[in-house]
Amino acid sequence: MSFQAMTWAVEQKCKSATQKLVLLMLANHANHHTGQCNPSHKRLADECSMSVSGLKKQLKELDAVGYIKTIRIMKNGVNLPNQYELMIENRGTQHEGVGHLVTEGGSPGDRGVGHDVATKLETKPINEPIKEKYKKENTVKQKRFDSPIEQEVEEFEKNENLNLSGFFDYYESNGWMVGKNKMKNWKAAARGWSRRQSTYQQQKRGRDECFSEEYWQAVESA
Question: pTM of the entire structure?
Fold first, then answer.
């Protein structure tokens, strides 16, 4: 099927709707390059929902008014099925740049419907603005944890009046991890450590008071 041939056929002013239908069906079988249509009479008649004799009548009328050209073929004295050529250049409505091979330096007179379209177009990229993604203003970036040195811990213990015995050695040995997570604030962890140390000392004192002085003397002399 040739799109250009179909476009041309649609634009033609035929005498009747039946004649227009036959012309459209011929265009549907048109060769894109030559414009020739070679469907059999039977097939074309079936597509147009008419008899073969009725089809031949319409073809004859289309030939007479110049929409098509009937090509009769004979070989070795035998008549072969007719071929038909759409007379696009003769009968078609001329459209500049439609259905024609247009190149640089081409002749303006070589215009029409039903030929190859090969226009040379310059394509330019379309630069569309790209929306930037903005982060929320209230997003707080997590600060990198810097582990303290031993002198910092000792000074903090003194200034805060805490009991941080064993704190630095414990966390320095495990990479300053709290469970499976990296420590975020060593000072807060130190205060918690001190509170646990105080609780432990109080509990230990309470257990010790449960035993008499004679008991502890016996334990020391054993």
Answer: 0.39
Separation of alpha carbons 112 and 7, rounded Å: 11
Q: Which residues contact 90 (CB under 8 A, 6 or more apart)?
A: 66
Closest CA to 5 of 108, 161, 142, 117: 117
> Is residue 27 assigned to a domain?
yes
pLDDT of the residue at 77: 79
**Residues of the domain holding 37:** 3-91
Q: Which of 47, 68, 91 is the last residue of a domain?
A: 91
76: CATH: 1.10.10.10
- 86 located within any domain: yes
Of 113, 32, 36, 45, the closest CA to residue 70 belongs to: 36
| 33 has a pLDDT exceeding 70 | yes
3-state secondary structure of 6: helix
